[in-house]
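User: Here's a protein and a ligand (zinc ion). What would the complex look like?
Assistant: Let me lay out the input and then the predicted complex.
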Amino acid sequence: MITIDCPVCLSTAKNITPPGYRGIVVSCLRCNVYRVTANAAAKLPTLKVEGRLAALERAKTQILSGSVPTISSGCLQRATSYRRERDDYQNERMVRYAKPRTFVHRPELTEAQSRD
Ligand SMILES: [Zn+2]
């Protein structure tokens, strides 16, 4: 068993990748056990910690109970677009607060939220 830095939270974790798996399997005290596909493992370091944690949360929502969450590139894309939507939303709220009469309905935002 090899000690590594957790690819998500960077604390000390164990690499428990079984032979033949093309990504990595991590056992972290903070994040528990999760898998990262080879594609996602290459992209993960390019994200900020919020994006990595969001990706892990996404992975956790996609699993059946009892199985191991897997961070795939799909989780990363959704994690970053989720963050962008949330930032847009916060910016819009600030604008709306400053100018309460210029509220513009944004159906795409409502749609993204109802998916969650
Ligand atoms: Zn971790």
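Summary: The two ends are 37 Å apart (CA to CA).
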